[in-house]
Amino acid sequence: MSATFDPDHLRAGLRPLAQWQPLSEEAKAYQRFYRTDFPERDVWRGMGRFEVDGYELVSHCWWPETAKGTLFLLHGFYDHTGLYRHVIAWALDQGFAVIACDLPGHGLSSGERASIRDFSEYQDALHGLFAEARSIALPQPWHLCGQSTGAAIVVDHLLDQSVESPAQGQVILLAPLVRPRAWGWSQLSYYLLRPFVRGIARRFSENTNDPAFLPFLQADPLQPKRLPTKWVGALSRWIERIEYAKKSPRRPLIVQGQADMTVDWPHNLQVLKWKFDRPQILMLPQARHHLANEVAEMREEYFEFLSKRIKGRNPQ
């Protein structure tokens, strides 16, 4: 199935979610391509556009009529919301509305592909998404869920605004990024390359056990093809800041694959245990990095873990 949408044209035709714009034929084609239209479900499906730090960000929303809360979903680096249909479907099964946005430089949003000036811009994007959710009165409580870099954004937000956060529901971190794997070597490469190149070619790797996922990524029209050195520099500054941040009283749910070759998960889990109050951690021995697109049996295992803890529990 080939894509029948143009990202820039699709984005240009969007308005803020509060204007309750019906989906265009191009937006419907986008949702069909990534199978996020969920035609069998009785949900309102919306797409919108809002501005943050000079970026035009595209928001996505799925809202059942009887929703009992809202899940804010933040995707990982190189990703976009269209890759998260399994997580969205699980959240809808739990009775939640779901709202997400493509981060700057990702998916349908504007910006240099996969780049960022500073990680603070990700925080601005999250706060912009909160504003979009307020504008349409998405139901409380608000829960947070992030994969990899999306989890890093959630961690950053909570370490800075635990008590003041508008999202006082549960917190879900999937394969959270604090440091990437082999970070020392990555830093050395960054400082050696920075004066000479703006980016290096991306290497696609097998980051799930699903043999169909890598070919889909390689054919995905919204996948960035380069790793900008600017993003690595922004990550370096963020890591230093986050590892010295004050602790948070929140108690997140963390899911981590032990076959993850993308992040330095032993180090990351130690940091998160120190920063948060007794996080509940599920380890999946065979799971790789992209948990949102792992094989069905692994998704079922961690969705069961999350479902038991997100219903009727005090998130604190």
From TrEMBL:
MF terms in GO: hydrolase activity
Classification via InterPro entries: Hydrolase_4 (IPR022742), MAG_DAG_Lipase (IPR051044)
Pfam families, A to Z: Hydrolase_4
Keywords: Hydrolase
Statement: the UniProt record of this protein carries the keyword Cell inner membrane: no
Keyword Lyase carried by entry: no
Serine aminopeptidase S33 domain segment(s): 67-294
Protein name in UniProt: Alpha/beta hydrolase
